[in-house]
Each structure stands twice: as C-alpha cells, then as structure tokens.
Write a structure and sequence with these properties.
Layout lengths: L1 E5 L5 H10 L3 E5 L2 H5 L3 E4 L4 H10 L3 H9 L3 E5 L1 H6 E5 L11 E6 L9 E6 L8 E6 L3 E5 L4 E6 L2 E7 L2 E4 L10 H11 L1
Parallel strand pairs: 1-2, 1-3, 3-4, 4-12, 5-6
Antiparallel strand pairs: 6-9, 7-8, 10-11, 11-12
Bound molecules: glutamine.
C-alpha cells in the first residue's frame, strides 16, 4: 500500500517522516501521474490559498477531485483540512476545495493574537491525550450530520472523521508520537 503526501507546499516532510516511521511506503505527490501510484493521500498544513493555486497550475486539482469522489482515503491537517471542506470563510474568492467534509471552516479562525497555541487534547480514539500544535489554525464553524467529532478544543471540533476521511485543524505531524497517523493508516488498511 502506498500513501501519498501532497508535496506542493507546506509541512509535507514531517508527514512523510511520521508515515515512514510507521512503515508506510510514502510517495510525494506533485504531478497527476504521481496520484496513480497511491492508495491514500495526506494533505498537509501550509497555506491553503497557495495550495489551491498550485493544485490548479500543476493540473492536480481535477484528477484529485475524481479520486476523492471515488472514495480514496484522505487525511487533511490544518490547510489540508481547509482543502477538504465544503465551505471556507475568509478565503480568497478564487480558492477551491474538495468538499469531502460537510463542514464550514473559518481560516485563521483563532485570531491573530493567539495565532499559535499548544494543548493536550483528549480524544475519543486514544487512551491518553495527544499533544496538539495549532498554527494559524482554521476553526470549524459548522459541522454536517455525517461528520464525527473525535476531539474538541475550546468548544470547537478539532479532529473529525467522515468515513475514511480524517481531518485535524492542528498539526499531528508535529506531535512526539504518531498515534493519529496510525489511526489514518489503520483506516486505509481496513
Ligand atoms: N492559515 C492557513 C491557511 O489558511 C493554514 C495554517 C496552517 O496550515 N498551519 O491555509
């Protein structure tokens, strides 16, 4: 099984390292042909407006939308979560997303003065809390009915699942352990 990491921009290397640590066969996805080789895809944090533009200029957007609509397992973190949502508040007018999660996100929704924060997060999928780093994180401001909340922080959902799609508004690739990545790999294998 090959796990793709969208490698156009942003924090893709840390994801690739976590996945490799877990024994996954990682492929960096930069061109449409790279997509053919992968069974699942991680979409990293970074800048969602830039990623949206690069997805178009690399001609990855449309084939990736087809794979996502066909049910490929995906894991989006931070900007990657923005790219997987149906509605984006405070985005660029031409910013596109894949609508895999029926959620609305507000970009940089935790405000400028607290652009970054770290917390220990209780989740429904781990025995102990996970260390969560939020960096100019999107805030989930609406949740569709088929979206399962796996963790909340400050009253907001921050780790969500919908079928084989997993999304985090924080950066699990910056945690000291790899439990959230393991959860994703388990969903790909099942
Ligand atoms: N604020 C960024 C965006 O809108 C996301 C930040 C991140 O991925 N760390 O894309």
């Amino acid at each position: 099984m090959k796990i793709g990491v969208l490698a156009l921009q942003g924090a893709f290397r840390a994801h690739a390292d976590k996945l490799s640590e877990l024994g996954a066969d990682v492929v960096e996805v930069r061109r449409p042909s790279h997509l053919d080789a992968v069974d699942a895809l991680v979409m990293p944090g970074g800048e969602s407006t830039t990623m949206s533009m690069l997805l178009e200029s690399s001609e990855l957007f449309d084939p990736l939308a087809v794979r996502i609509d066909d049910g490929m397992a995906v894991f989006g973190t931070c900007a990657g979560l923005i790219l997987l949502s149906t509605e984006i508040e405070d985005g660029r007018p031409d910013q596109r997303s894949f609508g895999r999660f029926d959620i609305a996100v507000q970009r940089n929704g935790y405000g400028r003065q607290i652009e970054s924060f770290e917390t220990e997060l209780e989740t429904t999928v781990t025995d102990d809390p996970v260390h969560a780093v939020f960096i100019r994180a999107p805030r989930i401001v609406r949740l569709g009915t088929d979206v399962e909340v796996l963790a909340e922080s400050r009253g907001d959902a921050v780790l969500v699942r919908s079928g084989n799609a997993l999304g985090a508004s924080f950066h699990p690739e910056l945690a000291t352990d790899a439990r959230i990545h393991r959860l994703f790999l388990d969903s790909v294998a099942s």
